[in-house]
């Protein structure tokens, strides 16, 4: 294990010294050197995460699929999303957009002697139990992610973006990263803002993010894998999450906007009445209503354009309704 850690740290240092640091100084961004070093860690961990996901989940999909496909051509666009996301392209864009804002907020807070308190400040004993503090942060962030996810199904303007994620008819572990870039930006702001608010230590932030993303990879996998009658109510798995992506939602008014919004712990769906499980495994996707939506299903740039078009329609329709009222 130590040799792997040394290899990782060595690769991070080499990339920083030979590529990232010179580029930042060349662009006049010397103040972002520390963030650049941490960014390399994020990218390298993304590579490791992607390797783990492929090694563990691709065999599951091959040996025990929920659906058998004649060809996997529709999955290709999700691979593009995953590579852009896990190798840091999308996070880099989000970082570039958010970094000035968070630096400004951090500077204002420090100027006014406002420093977000960490769990260890409230519970000093956690200083000696880092795993316990990690799990508490994980529960808090997972609760927050449940509501972000549920709200993305509840507001028409937000669904215009999030619906891209649900349009895949051949759902696989790659589908986790299939998101409109603007939806990714909103999710990044949501997750990072709460992490800052509750004082998540930088050393735990990336670990928390990776745990959630690996679970999401597994939950989207094209496999019949289940965790048993009890386990399916403890941790979100492929059978559980497949109903969230069901082409046809359960015929119950409670599920008009969807079901099974939990990311990691099903307890949130249980508590807030959005849980649905059935023995069969449903087909996935959404019912596209226009030729534009159909043609965008497997095209990256067409999906990005479609999301913006639908977002504009949702916002202008609402504005027109309010003005006429």
What does this structure look like?
With 325 residues, this protein is mainly alpha-helical. It is 65% helix and 0% strand. It contains 14 helices and no strands. The longest helix is centred in the first third of the chain and has 31 residues, at 33-63. It is globular. The chain starts with a helix and ends with a helix. The model has no long low-confidence stretch (mean pLDDT 85).
Brief characterization of the structure:
With 325 residues, the chain is mostly helical. The protein is built from 14 helices and no strands.
List the defining traits of the structure above.
single chain, 325 residues, 65% helix, mainly alpha
* Main pleated sheet: none
Strand content: under 5%
Order of helices and strands: HHHHHHHHHHHHHH
| Extended strand count | 0
| Continuous helix count | 14
Structural class: mainly alpha
Mean pLDDT: 85
Shape: globular
* Rg result: 21 Å
Report the span from N to C terminus. 65 Å
Q: Low-confidence segments, ≥5 residues, pLDDT <50?
A: none
């Amino acid at each position: 294990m130590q040799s792997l850690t040394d290899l990782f740290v060595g690769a991070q240092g080499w990339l920083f010294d030979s590529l990232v640091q010179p580029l930042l100084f060349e662009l006049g961004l010397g103040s972002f050197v520390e963030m650049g070093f941490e960014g390399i860690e994020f990218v390298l961990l993304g590579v490791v995460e992607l390797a783990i996901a492929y090694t563990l989940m691709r065999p599951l999909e091959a040996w025990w699929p929920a659906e058998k496909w004649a060809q996997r051509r529709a999955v290709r666009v999700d691979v593009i999303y995953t590579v852009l996301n896990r190798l840091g392209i999308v996070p880099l864009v989000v970082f570039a957009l958010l970094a000035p804002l968070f630096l400004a907020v951090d500077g204002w807070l420090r100027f006014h002697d406002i420093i977000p308190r960490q769990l260890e400040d409230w519970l000093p004993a956690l200083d000696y139990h880092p795993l316990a503090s990690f799990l508490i942060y994980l529960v808090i962030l997972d609760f927050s992610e449940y509501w972000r996810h549920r709200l993305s199904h509840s507001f028409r303007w937000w669904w215009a973006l999030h619906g891209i994620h649900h349009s895949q008819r051949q759902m696989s572990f790659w589908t986790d990263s299939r998101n409109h870039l603007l939806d990714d930006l909103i999710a990044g702001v949501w997750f990072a803002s709460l992490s800052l608010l509750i004082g998540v230590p930088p050393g735990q932030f990336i670990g928390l993010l990776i745990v959630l993303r690996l679970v999401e990879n597994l939950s989207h996998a094209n496999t019949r894998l289940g965790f048993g009658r009890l386990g399916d109510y403890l941790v979100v798995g492929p059978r559980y999450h497949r109903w969230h992506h069901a082409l046809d939602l359960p015929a119950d008014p409670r599920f008009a906007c969807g079901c099974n919004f939990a990311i990691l712990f099903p307890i949130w769906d249980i508590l807030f009445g959005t849980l649905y499980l059935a023995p069969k495994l449903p087909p996935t996707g959404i019912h596209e209503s226009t030729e534009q939506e159909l043609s965008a299903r497997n095209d990256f740039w067409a999906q990005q354009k479609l999301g913006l078009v639908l977002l504009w329609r949702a916002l202008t329709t609402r504005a027109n309704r309010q003005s006429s009222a």
